[in-house]
Amino acid sequence: xxxxxxxxxxxxxxxxxxxxxxxxxxxxxxxxxxxxxxxxxxxxxxxxxxxxxxxxxxxxxxxxxxxxxxxxxxxxxxxxxxxxxxxxxxxxxxxxxxxxxxxxxxxxxxxxxxxxxxxxxxxxxxxxxxxxxxxxxxxxxxxxxxxxxxxxxxxxxxxxxxxxxxxxxxxxxxxxxxxxxxxxxxxxxxxxxxxxxxxxxxxxxxxxxxxxxxxxxxxxxxxxxxxxxxxxxxxxxxxxxxxxxxxxxxxxxxxxxxxxxxxxxxxxxxxxxxxxxxxxxxxxxxxxxxxxxxxxxxxxxxxxxxxxxxxxxxxxxxxxxxxxxxxxx
Length: 329
What we know:
Helix content: 25-40%
Strand content: 25-35%
Mean pLDDT: 94
Number of helices: 9
Strand order of the largest sheet: 9-8-5-6-7-10-14-12
Structural class: alpha+beta
Order of helices and strands: HHHEEEHEEEEHEEHHEEHEEEHE
Shape: globular
């Protein structure tokens, strides 16, 4: 018998882990919460039922794509109902781009169903939380840097958020409400939120740790809270230490790589010597083919830094990136 079971930063294991915890009587997400967090339609329905701010949306099946009408207006964003990692996300600028966008999203959907949402203008953040016995604790708020339309791939994160204290209070309030709507009572969540002219609105919520090194590196570097250890302790039914140990800043920036084959990568050791650089990692190395940044898996590497302020941490990352030369052919 296992002492505990948990998901990492991956959506695909969330439902299975919840089912196992339910059968074995172990702490974890309920099956309903797990399903609500991995099916984007059920997620939005839960937000609607619990008055959590969210975008207007509609669902289109693969069979309806050729005749679909966009009811949420233009511009809009389409995404698979049941995928993650920025896969299949498309920007729908007008009627001429509808079919191509929907087909791209459907190709990344296990069910073939596509979610179409109103395009929300404004900066994006994520909220890293841990829930214990029904109480949702906000550990950190992360500012995001994404590519433009049509793919909106995340190319950087920094902590703590640079928004005003008032805006951060609103963000935290919406994130906590989203967790309660989904039904999360024990375990982690990673909630993505857009700061619109109408206030913070939830993009989506993952009932797991944040990826992109957010919970493995950035949050410990900015707060001293080890979210991975905390999740393990929650999964074991133990007490997790969620109190910040310090107030610093951290950032991650991804390599800028063009299309083609990676011929050489230079400057890594020089970049690692920059004060404040904590990690440089190559995901796609020499000889690998790059097809452009269309999803999270297309990013070839990253730099992580720690400093006293988020601005300084970002500057350190950019300084390191300037030293790293990636030769393509």
